[in-house]
Amino acid sequence: MGGLFLEGVALNFGSLTSVTIEFPTGPLSFQAQVRRVSTQPPGSGLQFTRLESHQLAVLQRFAGAK
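Below the sequence we write its predicted C-alpha cells.
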C-alpha cells in the first residue's frame, strides 16, 4: 500500500514526483519519492510520501487488501 513500481520508466533516485492513477471511481494523485532504480526489469520504485486516509481507502479497495 505504500508505493508502486513503474516498469520501463527511468527516474532519478531520490527525486520527488507525482503519480496519477486511474481507478474506476476516478483519478487519484499521489506524491512519491523514487526509492529504487532497476535495470532488470527496467523501472523505478516509488514510495508514497503522503497518503491521506481517502487515498489509502481507495488503494485498499482496489488492491483487495483487508
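Helices lie at 53-63.
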